[in-house]
Amino acid sequence: MQKNNNKLTADAVKFIKARQSHVPGMVQCHINAFPGRFMTEMGYHWLCALYLFFVKHHGGICLVAVDTGDKVVGLAVGGDPNIRNEFLSSAMFRYPHLIFWKFLCKRLVRRVLLKELGRKFHRRPAVDNSRDSKGQSVVTGSGNLLSLCVLPDFKGSGVGGKLIESFKLACAAEGYKHLTLSVAGENTRAMAFYKKHGWSRSGKSGASIKFSLDL
User: Fold this and answer.
1) What pLDDT is stored for residue 33 in this prediction?
2) Which domains occur in the chain, in start order?
3) Neighbours of 2 (CB within 10 A)
């Protein structure tokens, strides 16, 4: 019975560009889908800032699946692969107290932040060819899928598949020729999902498996 209800509900779902008003619902989807991950461990307000940053960024591609009441039931967020690092760099100055507290209390947060700091201090900045003469971000050919998730009641409903196909079309329309993403190594269900939708495993980074797709 639950499966049929999900299917009927999925038929009524709309797939649209995310607005700022959708951010709280996007955060709830993220928290449900990614427990124990770095961004989730940083908390609700951090996630709100993250998704708002993507929604407002001219290089962000942010899609949501919403029901008839405009409730967010799924999301696909990504675009310019530099946006995540831009957010982290700005957040270091905007949320120092939150970062310090999470650094002390959360082992995962501490490990990720130390890794990020190590990258900044031990690598010379690369020449950024993804900016035009006015400092605007320009398409470099490769985009990134940061997050794709649906609420638990919508798993298996087809919403996730429609979201990823919509995301691919949106990226192609922006001029991207290639997409990348990372999946936690233990998330075999997600890996099977991406393989089903044409993505190929392309490597490994720590505990994450990398996937890629040519558009």
Assistant:
1) 93
2) 2-124+139-214 (3.40.630.30)
3) 8
Neighbours of 153 (CB within 10 A): 15
Categorise residue 156: left if φ over 0, alpha if ψ from -120 to 50, beta otherwise.
Answer: left
DSSP 80: S
Give tens-digit pLDDT for 39-95: 999 999 999 999 999 999 999 999 999 999 999 999 999 999 999 999 998 998 899
CA dihedral 185→86→33→52, nearest 10 degrees, is: -170
Q: Across the strands, what pairs with 179? A: 143, 213
Q: What is the pLDDT of residue 1?
A: 37
State the Cα–Cα distance between residues 207 and 96, nearest whole angstrom. 27
pLDDT of residue 9: 56
pTM, full prediction: 0.83
Residue 2 half-sphere exposure toward CB, CA atoms < 13 A? 5
Q: For the chain, how big is the Rg over CA atoms in Å?
A: 17
Q: What CA–CA distance (Å, rounded) separates 116 from 120? A: 6
